Amino acid sequence: MPIRKAVIPAAGLGTRFLPATKAVPKEMLPVVDTPAIQLVVEEAVAAGLSDVLLVSGRTKRALEDHFDRVIELELALEAKGDTERLKRVQESTHLGDVHYVRQGDPKGLGHAILVAAAHVGNEPFAVLLGDDLIDARDPLLQQMIAVQQERGGNVVALMEVPHEQISMYGCAAVQGDGDIVDITALVEKPPVDEAPSDLAIIGRYVLSPTIFDVLRETPPGRGGEIQITDAMAAMIGREPLTGVVFRGRRYDTGDRLDYLKTVIKLASERDDLGPQLLDWLREWLPAQ
Question: Which of 2, 62, 90, 242 is at 20 to 30 A from 185, Cα to Cα?
Answer without folding.
Answer: 2
